[in-house]
């Protein structure tokens, strides 16, 4: 894809995601002059893209417009297929099924040439079913993160000692072959990371929490970066 074709595609994507975009904003995002943006908008309109607006006021894309077959490069297609296969293998059943339907939709909108690339992709992610229970825990944690639901977990540490505590699930991170839950632990009143394959039981409490600036995934990551720690090494199991 040429640089200009790529820029025109990006303009349409930006317009799709905003109510109104000025030429100045588009020029700044795409690192070109406003004059270039005016010319690109004119050419897009002449090609049939329904752009409404005028210079000095801003532009927007009329509702209902969709792009023709997606303009992915061969490398982008392979990247998407590889990502889908990784999700199917390593996440929970819910996301794995969603990834499967997403792949079907992707194949349906690709050009014939790009579909061949997708179908011939040799990047695989075999499932050896090493941690079968993890898929179940992943779904429970993933749903609880979205719903801000407090969970009660029974957990076995690396020494085989079992503990129980209520946690506020904040995020999931994949480390090699291991999924970690990043959570705020009510018992320790601090962040903790838990390996999903070491969870003995996970149960909703019926209680909910509100994410705070000092009890959030973003804050946890900020602490790791400031201390130079890897995610699983910051007080991983209480």
Written description of the protein model:
The protein is α+β, with helices and mostly antiparallel strands and 238 residues long. It has eight helices and seven strands, in the order H-H-H-E-E-H-H-H-H-E-E-E-E-E-H. It has helices at 3-16, 23-30, 34-46, 74-90, 93-109, 112-119, 132-147, 217-227, and strands spanning 51-54, 58-61, 149-156, 162-175, 178-185, 190-195, 199-208. The chain has a five-stranded antiparallel β-sheet. Strands 1-2 form a two-stranded antiparallel ribbon. The longest helix has 17 residues, at 74-90. The protein is extended and about 70 Å long. Mean pLDDT is 87; it is low at 230-238.
Main beta-sheet strand count, sense and barrel state: 5 strands, antiparallel
Total beta strand runs: 7
Mean pLDDT over all positions? 87
Helix and strand run: HHHEEHHHHEEEEEH
Task: Measure the end-to-end span.
Answer: 51 Å
Give the strand content. Answer: 15-25%
If you compute it from the alpha carbons, what radius of gyration comes out, rounded to the nearest whole angstrom? Answer: 23 Å
- Class from helix and strand fractions: alpha+beta
The helix content is 40-55%
Number of distinct helices = 8
Short description:
It contains 8 helices and 7 strands.
Highlighted features:
single chain; 238 residues; alpha+beta; five-stranded antiparallel sheet
């Amino acid at each position: 894809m040429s640089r200009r074709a790529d820029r025109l595609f990006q303009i349409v994507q930006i317009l799709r995601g905003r109510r109104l975009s000025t030429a100045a904003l588009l020029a700044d995002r795409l690192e070109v002059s406003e004059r270039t943006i005016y010319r690109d908008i004119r050419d897009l309109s002449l090609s049939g893209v329904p752009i409404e607006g005028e210079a000095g006021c801003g532009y927007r894309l009329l509702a209902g417009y969709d792009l023709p077959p997606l303009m992915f490069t061969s490398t982008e297609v392979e990247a998407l297929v590889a990502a889908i296969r990784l999700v199917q293998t390593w996440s929970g059943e819910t996301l794995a099924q969603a990834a499967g339907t997403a792949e079907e939709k992707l194949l349906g909108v690709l050009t014939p040439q790009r579909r061949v690339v997708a179908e011939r992709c040799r990047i695989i992610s075999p499932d050896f079913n090493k941690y079968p229970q993890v898929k179940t825990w992943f779904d429970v944690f993933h749903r609880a993160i979205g719903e801000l639901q407090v969970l009660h977990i029974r957990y076995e540490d690396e020494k085989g000692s079992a503990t129980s505590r209520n946690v506020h699930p904040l995020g999931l991170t994949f480390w090699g072959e291991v999924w970690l839950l990043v959570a705020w632990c009510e018992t320790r009143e601090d962040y903790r990371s838990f390996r999903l394959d070491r969870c003995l039981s996970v149960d909703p409490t019926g209680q909910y929490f509100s994410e705070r600036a000092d009890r959030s995934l973003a804050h946890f990551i900020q602490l790791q970066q400031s201390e130079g720690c890897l995610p699983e090494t910051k007080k991983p199991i209480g």
